[in-house]
Amino acid sequence: MTKEQIKEIAGNLDMGFRCLVHKKSLELKFITDEGKHPDMELESWAAELKAIKKARSQYLEIEGMDSRDSFRVMEEFIEWVDDEQLREKLRQALIRPRPFWNFKFEIDNSGPFRDKWFAFKEKQLMEWVEEQLLRNNV
Predict the structure, then answer these.
(1) Whether residue 56 is found in the same domain as residue 110
(2) pLDDT digits (tens, 9 = 90+) for 60-88
(3) Average pLDDT over residues 93-113
(4) Are residues 7 and 58 in the same domain?
(5) 129 or 18: which carries more pLDDT confidence?
(6) Would residue 138 count as lying in a domain?
């Protein structure tokens, strides 16, 4: 797979979509994850879901990160931050209730570190996707 395809998969997983890769053609299919998008109209996905269901064994589903893995990525980013004051704010964000919301709040208000966070997170997600592709010989 190309880096662009891996980046596309990572981005869609990050937005809460399911990603399936056709094992032979490497065609990508993105469908809504009902658990993450309960308000989304499933009727608009009916044809895609039917086609996938019909040939399910021909597709590999790339799993998104669970909350433990996402938390680990945030912890790793904190160690990378060279601003001690921000590093401490981010550490505190993770030990308070609602750590994901708190971390996002601190990152959104961190100036240039916001872009660094998104680049770091994208790299981690791409590595996550690559590991699954390698493990499944795709």
Answers:
(1) no
(2) 999 999 999 999 999 999 999 999 999 99
(3) 97
(4) yes
(5) 129
(6) no
Structure pTM? Answer: 0.86
Dihedral, 91, 92, 95, 100 alpha carbons, nearest 10: -80
Q: Read off the DSSP letter of residue 15.
A: T
Burial environment of residue 19 by CB neighbours within 10 A (0 to 12, 13 to 18, 19 or more): buried
**Residue 14 included in any domain:** yes
Amino acid, res. 96:
R
What is the C-alpha to C-alpha distance for residues 1 and 59, in angstroms, rounded to an integer? 14
pLDDT at 69: 97
- What DSSP assignment string belongs to 53-90? HHTGGGEEEEPPP-HHHHHHHHHHHHHH---HHHHHHH
Q: Cβ neighbours of residue 17 under 8 Å, at least 6 residues apart? A: 30, 31, 32, 33, 36, 37
